[in-house]
Amino acid sequence: MRLGLISDLHGNLPALEAVLGELEREGVERIVCLGDVAVGPLPSETLNRVRDLGCPVVMGNWDAAFVAGLPPATDELSQMLNEINVWWSEQLTDEDREFTRSFVPTLELELDGLPVLCFHGSPRSYDEVIVATKPEDEVEAMFVSPRPPLLIGGHTHLQLVRRFDASLIVNPGSVGLPFRDWPPKRARISHGRSL
Q1: d(CA 27, CA 108)
Q2: Which of 127, 16, 121 is nearest to 65 (CA)?
Q3: Which of 2, 15, 29, 39 has an alpha carbon 20 to 30 Å from 79's alpha carbon atom?
Q4: Neighbouring C-beta atoms of residue 5, cutoff 10 Å
Q5: pTM
Q6: Residues with Cβ < 8 Å from 154, sequence gap 6 or more?
Q7: 5 CB-near residues (< 8 Å, 6+ apart)
Q8: H or E segment and range at residue 189
């Protein structure tokens, strides 16, 4: 089976449509969404498009913030993000809210008999970060044993394929807001702006 992965859509419906068109041309048979669907310029429209796909959706950190409430702002960036969040959440309908609450923390599936575990940041937290430079012992602590051979996550907005013992960690990157690097450097959006 050909599996399509989409993650970190961030309300960017035109980017999602472009990616879905590519997945269709590639003959993808199943799609999994790894979360952070609505936070962005077209939140309701993006949620509706994902709902129409009928694919499973993993809860992302921004999805969870919407469902559970935003944490208090601790700096200028988090204040700005919270203000943006208020705007996009006002764009959502009750049906959108109910759909977001249906997202799952993790998803287990099989890909041609191969066990797969899907998550947003890590299996234990949608806020955790797995990047190429994350030390092995820190990555190890995020997973319980035995681990499936294929581990699929999102959250960082960076594409990744990383061998981890007998497993492979894959991150498709972000549909709606791709980054070029991750802190401790400043997060750089692919068109050159920095966060």
Answers
A1: 22
A2: 127
A3: 15
A4: 21
A5: 0.89
A6: 7, 8, 34, 35, 36, 58, 60, 119, 120, 121, 171, 172, 174
A7: 31, 32, 34, 152, 170, 172
A8: strand 188-189
Could you report the per-residue pLDDT of 135-149, keeping only the tens digit for each? 999 999 999 989 999
Separation between Cα atoms, residue 66 and residue 57, nearest integer Å: 15
pLDDT tens digits for range 61-86: 999 988 877 778 888 888 887 888 88
Give 175: exposed, middle or buried? Use CB within 10 Å, 0-12, 13-18, 19+: buried
7 within 8 A of 34, measured Cβ to Cβ: yes
CA 9 – CA 47 distance, rounded (Å): 9
What amino acid is encoded at 171 in this protein?
N
Half-sphere exposure of 84 (CA within 13 A, CB side): 15
Asked if 108 and 116 touch (Cβ cutoff 8 Å), the reply is: yes
Q: State the residue for tokens 């959502």.
A: 92
Domains of the chain: 3-189 (3.60.21.10)
Calculate Rg over the CA atoms of the chain.
16
- How many residues are recorded in the chain? 195
